[in-house]
Amino acid sequence: MKIRALIIDDELHAREEMEALLGETGAIDLLGSCGNGIEALQLINRLRPEVLFLDIQMPVIDGFELLNMINQEIMPHVVFVTAYDQYSLKAFEEKTLDYLLKPVDSRRLTLTIDKLRKTIGENRPPNYETEAIRRIPCLLGNRIKLIQLGDIEYISTGPAGVHAVTATDEYFTEVTLKVLEERTALLRCHKQYLINIDSINEIVLLEAGLAKIRTHSGKFIPVSRRYLKIIKKKLLI
Amino acid sequence: MDLLTFSLNNIFALLQQMSVFLVIAYLFTKSPFFKTFHIHTLNWRQLPFLYCIFTVFSILGTYFGLPINDAIANTRAIGAVLAGIIGGPLLGGAVGFTAGLHRFSLGGFTAFSCGLSTTTEGLLGGLVHILLVRRYQQHRLLCPWVAFFTTLVAEITQMVIILIFAQPFDDALALVRIIALPMILANSTGAAIFVSIIRDQRKMYDELSVTFSAKALKMAEKTIAILSRGFDMETAREVASVIREETGVGAVAITDKEKVLAFVGEGDDHHLVGYTITSSETLQAIREDRIVYADGGEKKWRCNRSENCPLGSVLCVPLRVDNELVGTINLFEPKNKLFLVTNKTLGEGITKLLSDQILYSRYVEQKTLLTRAELKLAQAQVNPHFLFNALNTIIAITRKDADRARDLLMHLSNFFRKNLKRTGDLATLEEELNHVQSYLVIEKARFEDKLQLEIDIDPTLLSLKLPVFTLQPIVENAIKHGISNMLGQGLVRLSAKREPECVRIVVEDNGGNFEERGKKGLGMSIVEKRIKNLCGEQHGVTISFVPQERTTIEITLPAKGCSE
């Protein structure tokens, strides 16, 4: 069975070359290729690839940062592809299955494919070291805006996707609520909401153990019974 | 006895005494005190010394006097009057009073009037001192005519005082008639000669120190130009020549710690450059790190290389740079010539000076080396990312368009050849653009449509000279930090224009990411440093940026370009 792969590289020729090389191995089912981290998140969430051939140096969100934004459940194996190993090999070992240096040698690529086959065959899910997310990439028209965590009041999810809400704006993001809950200091207050504890102005207690939070900018978000206790504890109430 | 004959005899007798006086005066001018003695800068600490000297002169004047009619014809006045002129009324009064008191103690019918008049004479000298100083005529304090007339007036005053105070008046009148003329003339002339001796000696010292300073300065001036090129055999020889020329010594040698770096002058037929040091004095100077001097008299210098060496005395001064002994400077005089003390002092002084100059030239050299090293570093820094990405791009293009790939490889090799070859300080704008052009063609291939280039160069500027490697790092920065971090369409503008006062080269990108970089990177700092070093402090690199919009780097250069 072929390995389902995604190529992520900001340079057109680099993508094409990788596509050609992977095609030559005959072992890869190429799901697609894309040129930046946001598109990559979208494709990963939708296509669930088994492996990423990921460039490290990319505009706005680099390869390492992208990994931090992927759900652990659907985390693919990662092969970094980079022009120059300025990052120490140590960093690669912790965060990736393998790495390739550009220009990629097809014989070296064969070894990577073998390693991939073996790992996937043993059904060992990737368990890469991830770091806390410091900023959330959001789409704003055709631009990517990086929202600093401190600027966010809350995150909501619904049929229209995940939205990061600041005091003044609301942005769509590809990063899931689950990832944000795991890798940021935002607190879950409802099935569909994460709250930035610093943006809480007041908590209005309602009947039946429910509550609602008023943010500094005057927006209300619901608090479910389950999470009210945790929030109270956090706030030392 | 005929009055006139007596007076003449007295004059000769007094002049005789005066001669003894002048010998003492001459000896005084040879004393070490006199070297530090400057009439314009007398300080309080010198006054007691002057008081003693002039008091002794004054009292000796009394002792050397001729006893006449129970009185003494003398030259006591000289000491008191001169003390007054040179040191002011306080010194004059003190000397006059002391010498007068002494005269008073010797008794006689003029004892009181003589004591009183000597004090008055000292004060009179002081009065002249004050008058001259008030009128800014200090330089006339040592004028013989001033001394002459002051003493003349003082002596006339003394005669008047004797006539007024000495009793009986008839005896006093008789005495004055005998002594007045000889004393007035002898004292005035004596004072004038005394002063002229002091003045001439002073002048001699001053002239000597003027020529001495001039020599030292001339040497300093000549050697600094030589040593700015560094300290080696070549410059050592030139420095040795300068020292020999200026001091006029027989020969000058400069050594490092083992061998002779330079030898100039007599005996250069057998004292050859590159020989190991054989002079025991030089070796001792190195070993003990101190000045060794063989004056040619008691301690002779002996040449260990030749029996016929004409040199007989030497001064070996260790040459220290930054407290580390690096060699010696040796001044030789031939056997038939005396080693002048001034040359000894000059030799020691000039060595200190050379140490400083060598230190400075080393500092400058290291600074230049550092900038060169930094340039090399910057050149090396470009390579890995750019090279591997470029190769990756070209490999990909090879699959589809072999001609374009070949063209890109030509640009890549052009870029690296230029990078490796550019070693001088300056290049023309055309050469710089050629270098940047190859770089941009490759980057354009790498980013394809994502990178757009706008180049606008005033063609009359192509021959403008600017520091080599100025444009490339800045254009590279625009791509590396500006364009490659953008998701959208990237644009790099490169322009060179003439302005009234200067030439302005602008590199602008629409990334606007400068803020994230914070400050000028290494590459840009080096570019700026080199422009300032080679083209002048007023030129350089300025950065302006609008976040997310653009980053603009402006380079200003002299309107006529930079010159070597």
TrEMBL record, chain A:
The yes or no answer to whether the keyword Transferase is present is no
Task: Print the keywords alphabetically.
Answer: Phosphoprotein
Q: Name one GO molecular function term.
A: phosphorelay response regulator activity
What SMART domains does this protein map onto?
Answer: LytTR, REC
Looking at the record, the residues that make up the HTH LytTR-type domain are 136-237
Q: Which residues form the Response regulatory domain?
A: 4-117
Q: PROSITE patterns recorded for this chain?
A: HTH_LYTTR (PS50930), RESPONSE_REGULATORY (PS50110)
Protein's name according to its UniProt entry: Two component transcriptional regulator, LytTR family
* Taxonomic lineage from the root: Bacteria, Pseudomonadati, Thermodesulfobacteriota, Desulfobulbia, Desulfobulbales
Automatic annotation (TrEMBL), chain B:
Q: How does it sit in the membrane?
A: Multi-pass membrane protein
* Every Histidine kinase/HSP90-like ATPase domain range: 466-561
Signal peptide feature range: none
Q: Which residues form a coiled coil?
A: none
Q: Which UniProt keywords apply?
A: ATP-binding, Cell membrane, Kinase, Membrane, Nucleotide-binding, Phosphoprotein, Transferase, Transmembrane, Transmembrane helix, Two-component regulatory system
Q: Which PANTHER family match?
A: SENSOR HISTIDINE KINASE BTSS (PTHR34220:SF10), SENSOR HISTIDINE KINASE YPDA (PTHR34220)
This chain belongs to the protein called histidine kinase
Q: List the source organism.
A: Desulfopila aestuarii DSM 18488
